[in-house]
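Encode chain A's predicted structure.
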Amino acid sequence: MKIAFFSNFLNHHQLPLCEAFCCMDGVEFSFVACERIPEDRLKMGYEDMNTRYPFVVRAYEDEAAAFAIAENYDAVIFGACPTAYIAHRMKHNRLSFRFCERSLKKGTWRRFIPRTRRKIYEGYTKYKKQPLYILGASSYAASDLALCGFDKKKCFEWGYFPSVTAKDLDAVFAQKRESAVAEVLYAGRLLPLKHVMDTVRAVHNLKKQNIAVHFTIIGEGECAKEIKAYIAQNDLEDTVAMLPFMSPEAVREYMDKADVFVFGSNFYEGWGAVVNEAMNSACTLLVSHAVGSAAYLIRDGENGYVYPFADVGVLTDKLGRAVADRALRERLGREAYKTVTELWSAEVAAGRFIALCKAFENGDDFRLLFESGPCSAAVKRNPLK
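Encoded structure for chain A:
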């Protein structure tokens, strides 16, 4: 079976899935890079993966080869790429999938804006009666598209599949126990959409209740000044530490030591691959319900906690519960690790995608293949926005 994935350029979040496809028996895989990696990314230290891996076809050097793949391969996943490739494949009614986050991040009302409506039509609803299906890298993707007239029955759960490392969990938890107080962590940009201040306020609330906790923030951004000012004004220097950006490997080391990871973004957060990474480190996750991955990755009270976006009261309560109970944290952490190693991994996703394609080929009921996880039927969710 020939499988292709069209996107702008190869990056470290897509690589594990690509390599999983390449390792499968009977699969010929190509990643079609439609753009060169931007110069600013190279200056930031990103690698030009387009030129490193033999499975990459560079459309900007050989457009004819890219169109031939779009026309002839058995199944194609279209990510961030020109819609011309989708239109070309749809002329031949070939099995296709759109890999996408939610379409209406800025509000479902935006579907009434002509420009937005046209963009969604050209990429999705134009082909609603053809073999174009959705791999939704957000639990809200199906809901957004349904509001625009796309059949939610053609939508499947999907996501981002960053590298997952096999770990000795007993050793990981022994390392976490070395700290005298519960360690809470955030890693990422300090932007308004991330709502890191919510966690700072929750940690402050716990301190006022004489609950011992320490919060480490790794990252930089426009909200750093506000956070630093709040720390100074409330004498939290011994409770909240702010560190600059560091390498992904160094961040993973902090995750291995952390007890709790909080990710409180608003609805602008399409997926949040850092959630997968923290689960791989067996952290207890506290994730805002607005985050695209929350409903797919987190089962509230079983492998982490989901809380209502920006509700500092609920966040304080659930964080306090986790901070006070090491046995609870370790139970949730083990289940979180199991979720990303046994269900939400690149290898599982690749295998399920092939099974899904074969179901289409054989005329089987593709909706009944998987109960949950990658390639299961997407559940329509109504964002509170």
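Residues 1 and 199 are 47 Å apart (CA to CA).
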